[in-house]
Amino acid sequence: MNPYYTVVMIICILTMTSLAIDVGKNTILTKGDIKWFRITFILVAIGAACEYTCVTMNDMNRSISWLRKLLTFTEFSISPFLGVLLARSCGMQKTIKPLALTMSVNVILEFISIFNGFIYYIDNAAIYYRGRHYWIYIVFCGISFAYILFVFVIIGIRAKLRSLLNLIIIALIMIIGQAATIIDSTIYSSYLSVCFAATLLYIFIQNMLRHVMIQTINTEKDISNHDALTRVLSRISYDNMISLLDKEIKLSPDKLKFAVCECDLNNLKIINDTFGHDRGDEYIINCCKEICDIFKHSPVYRIGGDEFVAILQNEDYDNLEKLKLIVDETTKREIMKKCTLVEKKSFAAGFSVFNSSKDKSYNDVIKRADVEMYQNKKMLKSL
User: Fold this and answer.
1) Rg of the Cα trace of the chain?
2) Is the dihedral of CA 372, 377, 378, 382 positive or negative?
3) Strand ranges (DSSP E) for the chain?
4) Contacts for 171 with CB less than 8 Å, ≥ 6 apart
5) Are 377 and 266 in contact (CB under 8 A)?
6) Could you give the dihedral angle defined by the CA atoms of residues 14, 93, 90 and 194, in that order, rounded to the nearest 10 degrees?
7) Could you tell me if 106 and 80 are in contact, meaning their C-beta atoms sit under 8 angstroms apart?
8) d(CA 55, CA 263)
9) Average confidence score pLDDT of the chain
10) For the chain, N or C: smaller number of CB within 10 Å?
């Protein structure tokens, strides 16, 4: 026997055994997928062991005929069935039952062949021969191969075709290895290719699920970081920003430059009570757009139902006085506009600049902006 084949098969069997033990550890697979991957790895290991034992028997002078028949039956039954197991391990369920029933027919035919030898024949010297109807086994293998390709294409489409090529390569590894053995019985590549395909598929499914999980986390993070109504930054983002600024204030206050503009919408309660909350939401959105148009280069946060805060740095910080004039003109224009309250974009605003010599936290800065904002609200109401 070729010693290289012995080494390769031992490695394959040990790899499948190791994966069967390890599949439930440090994984993001579901319990169902873990179970089916474990079954797949165990059966691949059994099939590989059967193939190796049968090849070993070919080189022995005397072998046990009934044992060779049992091993050949096991090998021929498992091989086409692996398509079902690999597909189920990938999460496929709807199309599994018809194929499982089809492959069960193959198991029955392989069992019958033990006695009449129409698919394979083992003589009294335990020597293996292909039967007259060996093509039946080839048909079942072909169905299994076609199904694997179908499943992998479906998975690739679900993954938005990003990894379809990888899946096709995995399928080809399995198909080429199986086909080579079917064409030439002296090429023992059947279970070697299955071991490679099962291992690569396991890694692929893990990576795909991890990618989906990361996308979901990023989506949820984006949702939590943005206000659902206005799509500006949310209170969660605002609190995170406060934490960052407080750290910078403690570490290097002299290098930090920022200003705050706190905005409070006017008449929101009256609008909700008079026109309804749908029109109130429309009013909030329109006011928010106006605030964002003014502070184009600064993050704007919605920190309450009618409260917004813009944190000015860099370009907006340098143009602070100009922005103050724009806000003053806008708030006065909107409060004086001759239209219904809901058609206005009316808000009061207060500014405050970080002073490194006296401000010990962000809260010290926003307090001054809050005071100025309420003074501005009183002035606007007098108009």
Assistant:
1) 36
2) positive
3) 120-122, 128-130, 259-265, 300-302, 307-312, 347-353
4) 145, 148, 149, 152, 197
5) yes
6) 40
7) yes
8) 82
9) 87
10) C
Nearest residue to 57 (alpha-carbon basis) of 123, 143, 112: 123
Percentage of the residues of the chain whose pLDDT score is greater than 70: 96
Helical residues (DSSP H) of 24-93, grouped into ranges? 31-58, 65-89
Q: Which two tokens stand for residue 200?
A: 């690569």
For residue 299, CA distances in Å to 93, 237, 256 come to 47, 10, 17
Q: In the predicted model, what is the mean pLDDT of residues 89-102?
A: 81
Asked whether the beta carbons of 312 and 257 are under 8 A apart, the reply is no
Q: How many CA atoms lie within 13 A of 89 on its CB side?
A: 30
* Residue 13 burial (C-beta neighbours within 10 Å; 0-12, 13-18, 19+): buried
pTM for this model (two decimals): 0.61
By CB atoms closer than 10 A (0-12, 13-18, 19+), residue 66 is exposed
Q: Which pair of structure tokens corresponds to residue 334?
A: 């909107």
Tell me, what amino acid is at 93?
Q
User: With the CA atoms of 190, 176, 11 and 42 taken in that order, what torsion angle do they form, in degrees rounded to the nearest 10?
Assistant: -60
Task: Quote the pLDDT of residue 91.
Answer: 75
| pLDDT single digits (tens) 138-165 | 899 888 888 887 877 777 777 665 667 7
Give me 46's structure tokens: 């059994």
Coil vs helix vs strand at 56: helix
Higher pLDDT, 145 or 102: 102
**Structure confidence at residue 362 as a pLDDT band (50, 70, 90):** very high
Contact indicator for 126, 68 with CB cutoff of 8 Å: yes
Distance CA 176, CA 164 (A): 18
Q: What is the pLDDT of residue 208?
A: 75
| Residue closest to 327 by CA, chosen among 372, 273, 382 | 372
Q: How far is the C-alpha of 231 from the C-alpha of 49, rounded, in Å?
A: 60
